[in-house]
Every structure is written in structure tokens, then in C-alpha cells.
Amino acid sequence: MPDASLVMEPVTFSESGGIRYLHFGSELIQGAMRIRDPDEIYLEYNQQMMAWLLFLETKPGMCIAQLGLGTGALTKFTHRYCPAVKTTVVELNPAVIVSARSMFSTPNDDRRLKTLQIDAKTFVQNAQYQNHFDAIQVDLYDAICDGPAASSLDFYKGCRDVLKSPGVLTVNLFSRHKSFDLNLNNICEAFDNRVLLFPESHDCNVVAMAFKGPQLDVEWKEVSKRAKLIQEKTGLPTNSWASGLNRENANQENKLFI
Length: 258
Fold this sequence. Notes:
Distance between the termini: 38 Å
Strand order of the largest sheet: 6-5-4-7-8-10-9
Largest sheet: 7 strands, mixed
Helix content: 25-40%
Structural class: alpha/beta
Shape: globular
Low-confidence stretches: 1-5
Oligomer: single chain
Number of helices: 8
């Protein structure tokens, strides 16, 4: 159960040009939704958080965890386009859960969606979730946005522990902040340096992707083919994913080997 003594950030909203934004009591943007298309993933870095689809086929019984709910962008997208997948959302702030449903069109819990009001750091240490999830998406920021709210080596080791093999972790990081190197180093240590980075997006976010399980050895043209298929099926703009990953990561020029 969450600690009732914890002071939660106030949840506020703004709208401009048909886009609704989520804030935690400041001007900093915590998420966004195009009002006329609530199931679209509007922000580029949020789109890249779905990159586990490049490497894992969705199938009945697949489970993913979303640590940090925000506007529910990833949750809504998965619920609509990945009907075989069961999603567990972890969000400590009850106001974020309420606002995601009331202001950002996130569906209520059902047989494919479960929401837990709990600290993500506690969640990944829970033995009942060991080797349970095929993919984990981590987007944990508070009102100050002073780097991810969970960044320790123990946290990322916990993420690795609750992943199945094979499994994929995606994490939203701030590239131009002192927290970037700390988080990246801890992710690399927890995942034996099996980590890829997307190029920095326009808002200085960088998505890191870490792998658990058998070594990947695949031609980039096959990754591109998979990205094209995802775009055709979901509308997610994935056409630059393979080339971006290829350019951004050392020793991956000829093929993806990690």
C-alpha cells in the first residue's frame, strides 16, 4: 500500500492547438494527447518507448509493465493495437490515475489492464513478479524533472529480474542532464552492457533499450522490415528507428549484434 504520508505532486492541465498537456504543478510537460486522436502516441520519445515491438512478437499470454502512467499514452496504444497483451501499470500518485482516465481517455482496468498504486522501486523487488514480464517501459519523473525518480543500480537490476528471457526494457532519459550518465551506467551494469540508445529527440529525451536473454544477431534490413510492418499495422511512425539505432550505437554498423 502507498504511504499516506507522502506528499504527491499536484496534477494540472493545459491545452494549445488541439493538444492537451499534463503538468505536475509547473510548466514542465509530463505528457500530451491530441484531443481528436486520443489513442495516438503524440510525443516522439513516447513512440520510441514502444520499440520492444521490433524484437518481440505479441501473442496471447504476453505481459508488459508500464512504470509511470502519465497521460496513459503507452497504455492506450497497447490496449488498442496489441489485444493479446496484458498490461500492468504502476503509478504511485492516485491523481495521475484519475486524470489519465478522466482527461486523457485511458481505459478503466479490465481483463487486459491492471493498475497498481505502488512505488515502482518496490514493485520491481516483489518476488511474485520475477521473470514475469516480456517488456517493461519506464518513464518515471516528478514535478522537478531532476532526472528519473528511480535511477539506482538496484532498481535497474530489479527491472532485469522481473523480465522474462527474452525480454526488453525501454527507459526515458534526459540527455542534457547530470542524471543521464548515472542512469545509463546503471542500466549497462544491470544488463551486461546490452543496451542501445535512440538518437536524442527534439525535447532532449533519449530512450534507452536494454535486452535480457539470447544474444541478438540480425541484419539491419530485417529490423527495418519489422519497423515497416509495425507502422503499417499501427500507424506508429517507425520508419527512422532502424537507421537511428544504427547510427547512434558504436560497433553496430553492419548488423545488430548485442
